[in-house]
Design a protein that fits this description.
By secondary structure, this protein is mainly beta. It contains six helices and 18 strands. The chain has one domain: Beta Barrel (Porin), CATH 2.40.160. The strands form two sheets. It has a 16-stranded antiparallel barrel with strand order 1-2-3-4-7-8-9-10-11-12-13-14-15-16-17-18. A two-stranded antiparallel sheet has the order 5-6. A hairpin with a 2-residue loop joins strand 16 and strand 17.
């Protein structure tokens, strides 16, 4: 589907929301505003790095010269609860600015807000539009916090939730309360997400899909079928399910490792089918003298090529102000990285302190470490001078990409916060001949709560 046609569902969804949102005759505004959701957020990140050592550079290398770059994301979240169990959600977003080195040269890039195609500009677009249906499987109910992804504040303990439309895979899979929020917590791609999870998404991070989630008292199971991009890191999605699609399944256990503390364990598996290339095929062709001087994996692409991977995600409350998390991820690494980033194995761990820090009661401190790696086929491809959609130094002296990130989030009140962040990347792009890179960052964030839009009761 061409991008210009993607606005049609947006207009239809907006019309439905407006039509159903108008209060019926005799309906109180209090009841009306309990059924509607309007909120927003602004996130602005400025990053810098000083000069660093680079024995050589390629077309996809991080620039060894000093750089400064800023990004911004503005999102309007809207939704309407048609009935007690049916909701329509519509979000409009604008992403502008850029990342250092145009988000190239590091598998664990330093700013999750950056759109990997800077030519798209900051024109607003429909980020999400979906229908959410809750099917009760029991009478017992529990209270939950309403938000942009779900308006209702009470749901059945045992239930089936169905979603259809445009959404972000990362909103529902591989999340945790310590290392998933790039607007209030960490900023690095492979800290906030499992780097080896090549999840279905266009270059902005969204896809079309159908999601089913089963919830019980202590556990949950979710499955999603989603569209893959037609080319690696592409904006256009392939609508032919026969040749291109993604299956994602995750089991979640709400059980702590430590007694009398909150915690959760999530086990993930995914299988992508897309027009992907194979690293070994292009390497063999290049060695046989049948290819270009530098290997190009795009020349080996075949529709329906399958790629699979697994992930483990653990979070644990240690004490009331301290929570920790750990992630492990692996994918088979024979086929090209296609939708998220160029990682085939990853291990990450981190901690967050939320609470009283001196005389401040709402600030946060976080620390995380990540070790990323790639498969032997992927390594040989980059060593021979090949490029992916993020990496390509023209040569490679392989080493793990190790990242350390720390932040201090200072609450300014009224939904605003200021964050100071520091990242240290060793062997950027898995290359011992480059780096390390030191990246200090400043982030300003503002949440506009739906109470801002809600009229005061008379």
């Amino acid at each position: 589907m061409q991008q210009k046609h993607a606005t049609q569902p947006l207009f239809i969804a907006a019309l439905l929301i407006v039509g159903f949102a108008l209060p019926a005759a005799g309906q109180s505004y209090e009841t009306f505003w309990d059924r509607i959701w309007i909120s927003g957020q602004v996130n602005s990140i400025t990053q810098f790095h000083p000069p660093f050592h680079a024995a050589y550079s390629g077309e996809n290398s991080a620039s060894p010269s000093s750089e400064i770059a800023s990004s911004r994301v503005l999102t309007l979240f809207t939704g309407f609860r048609l009935t007690g169990s049916t909701e329509i959600l519509l979000d409009v977003e604008s992403a502008g600015g850029s990342g250092i080195s145009s988000a190239l040269g590091m598998a664990g890039f330093t700013n999750l807000d950056v759109v990997r195609n800077p030519t798209l500009g900051s024109k607003p677009y429909a980020a999400r539009y979906m229908v959410r249906q809750i099917i009760a499987l029991g009478k017992e109910r529990t209270k939950i916090a309403p938000g942009p992804l779900g308006i209702t504040g009470s749901v059945p303990v045992r239930r089936l939730e169905l979603r259809f439309g445009k959404l972000s895979t990362a909103d529902f899979f591989d999340i945790n309360s310590v290392g998933s929020d790039s607007h209030l917590q960490f900023m690095n791609w492979t800290v906030d997400n499992n780097g080896a999870y090549d999840y279905a998404a266009d270059t902005r991070g969204y896809t079309y899909g159908a999601l089913a989630e089963y919830y019980d008292r202590r556990w949950a199971l979710r499955f999603m079928e989603a569209l893959m991009p037609s080319v690696a890191n592409g904006l256009t999605l392939d609508w032919s399910l026969a040749r291109s699609r993604s299956e994602n399944v995750e089991w979640q256990l709400q059980r702590a490792i430590l007694p009398r503390r909150d915690g959760a364990i999530r086990v993930l598996a995914y299988l992508n089918h897309a027009n992907m290339g194979t690293y070994r095929d292009v390497i063999d062709s290049s060695l046989a003298g049948n290819g270009p001087d530098r290997p190009d994996v795009t020349g080996t692409r075949r529709p329906g090529t399958a790629k699979y991977g697994f992930g483990l995600n653990i979070e644990q409350e240690v004490a009331k102000p301290v929570r920790v998390f750990a992630r492990w991820g692996w994918n088979e690494g024979r086929h090209e990285s296609f939708a998220y980033t160029e990682v085939n194995q990853t291990v990450a761990a981190g901690a967050e302190w939320t609470g009283s820090i001196g005389r401040r009661h709402n600030d946060r401190i976080g620390l995380a470490a990540v070790a990323n790696a790639i498969s032997g086929d992927h390594r040989r491809y980059l060593e021979a001078g090949g490029s992916g959609f993020l990496l390509g130094d023209g040569h490679l002296n392989y080493g793990r990409e190790d990242i350390l990130e720390a932040y201090y989030n200072c609450s300014l009140g009224r939904g605003m916060s200021l964050t100071l962040d520091l990242q240290h990347i060793v062997n950027p792009g898995y290359n011992r001949d480059r780096g390390p890179i030191l990246v200090p960052s400043v982030r300003w964030h503002m949440d506009i709560d739906r109470a801002t839009f809600r009229p005061k009761s008379e």
